[in-house]
Design goal:
Blueprint: H1 9-34, E1 41-42, E2 48-49, H2 51-67, E3 72-75, E4 81-82, E5 87-95, H3 97-102, E6 108-115, E7 118-126, E8 131-136, E9 148-151, E10 154-155, E11 175-177, E12 193-195, H4 200-208, E13 214-217, H5 222-225, H6 228-235, E14 238-241, E15 254-255, E16 263-266, H7 272-275, H8 280-288
Helix pairs in contact: 1-2, 4-6
Length: about 300
């Protein structure tokens, strides 16, 4: 694959997409071969890791270094400090490690490209179910970039039809996605069918694709959400931080390894007032510094 140094911006964005597709396809083929066949060990934060996570992390880092030698990299398995420089990739080489290790066919590979600390491109591949999401979001970067989000190369939008004559909120025929650390919100009842997918990125991408009304992640790390952020923004979903820290832009020379970013994502602005009060316990827990679970409990992915 050609070096990106002398491309026009239009060529650069096409090159990015081609790189993400090629890299995740190659990595995904090996992960599919390993799927359900590897042993997991527990990391210090209670989450699981396998040799497949570590292998994928290394291969993706090496691919980035070859094709984008001037870009920095922050990954789940190795480099947690956000580097200085205009461009940086954030990589989750295997989102949904528990599913992967236990033989549940929902797991993915997540890539994000940040410009001056904010994601402008995200790509999430889910090899077992043959789904790939990607999106471009210029935010306030000043880059020549049209916002758009896709699932398997078809444009997606979150649910723009809501509250236009269909009484969706009071029925139990629609979905809201939880993670294992957010089940406390069910104590007061919930107006939707609940799903727990075990993959932070996919949990939120279902909202961006208009499949779920909303989703919440109680303890995602930056690599869990960076790839989703531009896709969700471009799809028209509403990102509601449940934490005090500023999410983007990231700060150079800062270690993001232990920072969690509780997040609510809803598919329509009108749903913020419906779901935010229901997930308020997660915001209160964040404010008090409590995790809400035992410290040795694994995260959902």
């Amino acid at each position: 694959m050609q070096n990106a140094k002398f491309l026009t911006m239009d060529e650069f964005w096409k090159h990015l997409l081609s790189f993400a597709e090629t890299t995740t396809t190659e990595v995904g083929e090996q992960l599919l071969a390993d799927f359900g066949q590897v042993q997991a060990t527990q990391k210090a934060d209670g989450s699981l890791v396998t040799r497949s996570d570590q292998w994928a992390d290394q291969v993706i880092r090496e691919a980035i270094a070859t094709v984008f030698p001037d870009h920095g990299v922050l990954t789940e398995e190795l480099a947690h400090t956000f580097p200085a420089g205009d461009w940086c990739w954030i990589v989750d080489p295997l989102d949904g490690t528990t599913n992967f290790a236990r033989g549940i066919p929902i797991w993915g590979i997540s890539l994000a490209l940040l410009y001056r600390g904010t994601p402008v491109f995200g790509y999430v591949a889910l090899p077992p179910i043959r789904q790939t999401f990607y999106g471009f979001w210029p935010s306030h970067s000043g880059l020549d970039l049209a916002p758009a989000a896709y699932l398997n190369h078809r444009m997606i939008r979150s649910r723009e039809d809501l509250l236009e004559g269909e009484p969706l909120i009071n029925t139990r025929t629609h979905f809201f996605n939880l993670c294992t650390r957010s089940t406390a919100v069910l104590a007061q009842g919930f107006p939707c069918k609940v799903r727990m997918l075990g993959v932070a990125s996919y949990n939120l991408l279902m909202v961006a694709a208009g499949i779920s009304l909303g989703g919440v992640e109680a303890t995602p790390k930056i690599w869990d959400i960076a790839g989703v952020w531009p896709i969700a923004q471009a799809a028209g979903a509403v990102w509601v931080p449940l934490h005090a820290d500023r999410l983007f832009p990231l700060v150079p020379n800062t270690d993001y390894g232990q920072r969690a970013y509780p997040t609510l994502l809803v598919s329509h602005p009108s749903l913020v007032s419906v779901f935010l009060p229901l997930v308020q316990p997660l915001r209160q827990r964040e404010a008090s510094g409590e995790s809400g679970v035992e410290t040795d409990a694994p995260k959902s992915s």
